[in-house]
Amino acid sequence: MRPEKQQAIKLRKNGRSYSQIGKYLNVPKSTLSYWFSNLKISQDAQDLINIRSHKKSTAALIKRNKQQTFLAKERAAVIREESKKEVVNLIKDPLFVSGISLYWAEGYKKGAYGSKWKSVDFANSDPEMISIMMKFFIKICGISINKIRAQVIAHENVNIDLAVKYWSKLTKISPERFIKTSLPKKIISKNKRKNSNLTHGTLHIRINDVRFFFKIIGWIDGLKKILGP
Question: Are strands 149-153 and 178-179 parallel, antiparallel or unpaired?
Fold first, then answer.
């Protein structure tokens, strides 16, 4: 038996990987695979190999995730900066100004400042405000009605089915595109009356599009720059 083969088998029985043995002996993996085809190793040696392989895979996964996160942040920054520059022309449209101002005030923005969830989400109980935002999303942003989802958030005194019908009729979002709401009953003080202004609850308009989310944030940035001191 060749000395290299004997040494390779010894290293393998000690729990060394193909890569380690190949590098140490300058032997290709194909040759090692042939040499080890009928080789039986102890459970301890196999455990060492498995642990090392798991650590290597985990390290590679962490590195890949970090790289993907870095690239995602770069793409978001580019989208945000380009959208910021568009505001100079878009600000001439009253619907744009109304929509982006309302989103600035009432829309979800935490995704731009560290939160993992990055989706457009506007919530309000005012039907007129909801109507304006629907026009903004469809006419200004070019979002298809089929890409928009909704969710009703309400206290236990609100009939969710009736609320969904109400908001569906107002927004033209089909009931099938409403996210189901399941909320626990809240304790209401005897000294407090239920808010009669929230007959239909609060409606969330949601668009799950990361690029569009950062476009909205960029528009807000642009509006701040124009209106700021």
Answer: parallel
Contact call for residues 148 and 207 (beta carbons, < 8 A): yes
Q: How far apart are CA 146 and CA 119, in angstroms?
A: 16
Give CA separation, 104 vs 54, 92, 133, 220, in Å.
46, 18, 12, 6
Alpha-carbon distances, residue 2 vs 5, 6, 100, 157 (angstroms): 5, 6, 76, 84
What is the pLDDT, as a whole number, of residue 183?
A: 59
Q: Which residues are CB-contacts of 154 (< 8 A; sequence separation ≥ 6)?
A: 160, 163, 181, 183, 198, 200, 201, 202
Q: Over the stretch 114-128, which tens digit does the pLDDT of each residue have?
A: 888 899 999 999 999
18 within 8 A of 33, measured Cβ to Cβ: yes
Q: Is 25 exposed, middle or buried (0-12, 13-18, 19+ CB in 10 A)?
A: middle
- In this predicted model, what pLDDT tens digit does every residue of 92-102 receive, in sequence order? 999 999 999 99
Say how many C-beta atoms besides its own lie within 10 A of residue 222's C-beta: 21
pTM equals: 0.66
**pLDDT tens digits for 2-35?**
778 888 888 888 888 888 888 888 888 888 887 8
Between CA 31 and CA 34 the distance in angstroms is: 5
Residue pair 122/149 in contact (Cβ under 8 Å)? The answer is no
pLDDT at 169 over 80: yes
Q: Count Cβ neighbours within 10 Å for each residue of 34-60 and write b for 16 or more, e otherwise.
A: ebbeeeeeeeebeebbeeeeeeeeeee
